[in-house]
Amino acid sequence: MKITEDMILSPAFEYAGAVTDGTIKTGKRIRLAVERFYRFLDEADSKGFYIDHEKGMRAINFFPNFLNHTTGKMAGQRFFLAPFQAFTIYNIFGWMDADGKRRFNTVYDKRAKKNGKTAEMAGLALYCMSFDLEMGAQVYVGATKEDQAKLCWSQAAQFIESPVSNPGLKTMGFKCFQREIKFSRTQSKMMPLGGDSKTQDGINSHVSIIDEYHAHKDDTVKENLESSSVSRRQPITYHITTAGTNLQSVCKNYEEAVIEVLEGRNEDDHLWVMIHDLDDGDDWEDENNWFKANPLVGYGLDLDNIRKEYIKAKNQPSKIPNFKTKHLNMWVDAPTIWIPNEIWMKNEVEEIPISAFEKFGSYAALDLSTTTDITAFVALSEPDEFGHRYIKPYFFCPADTIEHRSKEDRVPYRYWVDAGWLIATPGNVVDYEYVKDTIRSNYKDLNIERIEADKWNCEQMAQELTEEGMDVSYFSQAIGVISFPTKQFEKLVYEGKILHDGNPILQWMLSGCVIYRDANDNIKVHKGQSNKGGKRIDGIIAIIMALGGSMSVEEDTGGKYSKPDAEVYI
């Protein structure tokens, strides 16, 4: 294949040269992608492939010629592709087979969050609807949820309908409807498709964008789209994703397969791969390595914003896995331990002074769990003159289930009972009278001001304790309420301000805690997707509830607290 001067001067060849000579800093896998590109050039004639330079450049130029940015400081400006984007677009649309059809029918593109995935895919969709000249082309954005798929679809609609959009798209024949974008000249359409969409019938996909592939639990959506495209002349499946937290996911398994192709161990002449990530052994905290996963830095992505997210993660370590996956494009096994044992055990002390409870008062929390599991009652002292808090835990289990529980949970229940860490109540269910007796005998000694309880499983006991003159309050498990005391507990542990007496049950329970984080950055402790070894977390939940009660939670105002940070001793 003859390489023309126009090709050499194209953005794609310029990017390949800059990666090769080190002008553009990338990770190993992008360098492999560039080496593979040069190998394609060498093998083109023997394998019957060639580059149609005009088609490659037409696809690149579609973006600035027809698309304007629609949000932020660049709104209204023409959409010029960054070098790494131009490299991929040129190759996808420029390479042809001997029949004049697109060479690549599959793409795997992995990059960190905020590196232009959504806008680029929206632009690619509009280009394929129009310039592919495929009559009745159907373009689908496939995601786990239709709402996720709508993000890319909505961006495409904004390119058409935004007040700052390029009017050329409407002039060409693009029109937006409630769930479709249509292109009248070829009777093509673009639609979002989620695993929860009401129907996936009647699909005849020309372009299938598999959005955030890492989040897909299986390949149902992908396989449905790919099987529907067999009658198309030159269909394409574009996997676009950031790394995730499931090392057994379909995305991770697929990535391992495409890496074998990238590294030359397997061959697939119709697969295009771009993986922007750190190299094995790279220091994830060294920002000089962050460029590898964030190729848009300098082209609209501000490195300082990544620095800010890094600082948040360092200050709240439960955010580190999220920072690694979203901003460094690193696969992180999940669930990961919330607070490592070595951090927890650094804070062990010999004795917990009861005098602190007598002098400063305390809040307590009750987690009854089920009648056959461990029940936890925990008292938390109010801050002393140094801001220290102390926690006194009590745990209960049915005596008749100790041997069974020891085998199922793989921990020494019998030893805990003999050592006084665990109270065994007669029978095969927890005798709540023992729990109430413990609360009664310690209510005054620990100077308890209020007991926090989870209404769903403590209502009867809460009523009985209230009738005996104790102050009992229901503590909501809603994530918006429990998030703040959870974050405070974590912060204090990492600062070395929570001290404990080495209680092995608390140590075991903490090892079973993982963090769920919602879209609003609220967090909540849970056991994770699997509970191998039967781990319990009731004692840790009780500590967090007691801390929340002490900090005067106001559920009706969204979870606000009045007390300052204080050291906690357990």
UniProtKB/TrEMBL annotation:
Any GO MF annotation of the entry: endonuclease activity
Record-linked Pfam families: TerL_ATPase (PF03354), TerL_nuclease (PF20441)
Transmembrane segments annotated in the record for this chain: none
Domain (Terminase large subunit-like ATPase): residue spans on this chain: 83-255
Domain Terminase large subunit-like endonuclease: residue ranges: 267-549
Protein name: Terminase large subunit
Lineage: Bacteria, Pseudomonadati, Bacteroidota, Flavobacteriia, Flavobacteriales
